[in-house]
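Listing S7. Sequence submitted for prediction.
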Amino acid sequence: MENKNQGRALDRKKFFADPVLISMIGVLLVFLALFILYPLLMVLLDSLISDGKVTIGVFKRILSMARFRTAFTNTITLGFITGIASTAIGLLFAYVEVYVKLKTKVLTGLFRLVSMLPIVSPPFVLSLSMIMLFGRSGIITRALLHINDSNIYGLKGIAIVQIMTFFPVCYLMLMGLLKNIDPSLEEAARDMGASRWKVFTSVTFPLLLPGLGNAFLVTFIESVADFANPMLIGGSYDTLATTIYLQVTGAYDATGAAAMSVVLLSLTVVLFLIQKYYLEQKTAATLTGKASRARMLITDTSVRIPLSVLCGLSSAFVLLLYIMVPFGALFKLWGRNYSLTFKWFDYMFRTSGIKAFKDSFVLSFIAAPLTALLSMVISYLVVKKKFKSKGFIEFVSMLAMAVPGTVLGIGYIRGFANGLFRTGIMSSLYGTGLILIIVFIVRSLPTGTRSGISALRQIDKSIEESAYDMGAGSARVFMTVTLPLIRDSFFSGLVTAFVRSITAISAIILLVTPDFLLITCQINEQAEKGNYGIACAYATVLILITYGAVLLMKLGIRFFGTSRKIKE
């Protein structure tokens, strides 16, 4: 007991002897409290305090609104449909990737490409394509099938778009789980005479069940928090995210919007806590380690052909949606004149296109390295250091994943436009580029932190301890030892932050002022006006930028990454 206390005292002495480490923790605590917790607290206070008194009157008022009740029901319904379908399609692609022997590598490459496309694309591109393909002037509904009254707006339109957008998340999660299933368990059942279907239902599926629940909840959270797709293709089908936005911009009811935001935030945070602190641990406990040997891939035509056809049809549909975006920018008048022209690109660059791309690129370019570095610092502190506020830093940095963009936007308006900071630097943040950069950082922080934590847990602590023994401080160890070892995660976090920032809309649409033009807001504005050619021109260039960034990341990892150094 005495040795244990002496060890703790020695750890405390080392901790307080490192001023750089203490400074990093202090800066992080201030940043997370100020730019994540404070805006959310202001939203909560707005919904509970009226005329200086605590009351639930605002909640009673919004609960009595038929529009709010409808939006809540719609949001839950959409979340369940999207979650179930996305998980099923993600499982299909993951199962084919891990278990099925495809005849050609082309199919494997195609399925992987389609599974990754929506992850690095703007969130509302597929909505544009759905409108242009199946809307009233759609090339399929009107030009090919001669249906003049087609209505793709509403639940079916949003659900299809969200499923195609979010199923890759499930695919990535489930693929890792399937690879970790020991093939000997399934082969033992096969040796006892069980069919493929019996093996899947009695062995594979039960092992995957916690992972499926995890994937479902992640997709459900993404669906209920989504703003861009319901805004573009929702029509009269209101969701909580769009209702909150319209409550601020249309009804000018800030307190009502705050109460609605609290309801939506409560829903997403509860689901986030279940997903992170129950299902993630359940999944890890069910599937531990890696497969003991290579899996024998399925070659039976009765399994291979149906699954390949299903993946092929899904892939063809996704590719069709993406191909329509550049064509939408090249056609002279969608639905009327399909001759090719560059007039929409010309119009875009002659009007506000240059400024929109410049503003978006500069703000995202500034936010990306700051996000990547901050994510790695948080990961380093969480994995490698012991201090009392470690759990708080990890939880709050990941909490941003569960905060819907519109809720965060309202929190920033309330917190920095007329909140506690009425004078000083904080009061002047609203309406500046700096607040947009901060929002970009906050929204991308959870993704980078997750990646960094996973990478750091694979590094033996003795590597860093040897540097400490030679007299290096925390900052020097982090910059010269830890960061080089996780440079792949740093590159990945850098590009992910850039892509997420330049394609963001829900959190910043309420914060953008006329001083800044952002690509996503321009796409949303032009699509709402029915100017699909201009919207597609913006979206086409945006897609090229995001895929160019991903390509640069892959080249960077290939030539400067950890694996390169190991080979040398």
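Caption to Listing S7: primary sequence and predicted structure tokens for the chain studied. Residues 563-568 have pLDDT under 50 and may be disordered. Residues 164 and 317 are 9 Å apart (CA to CA).
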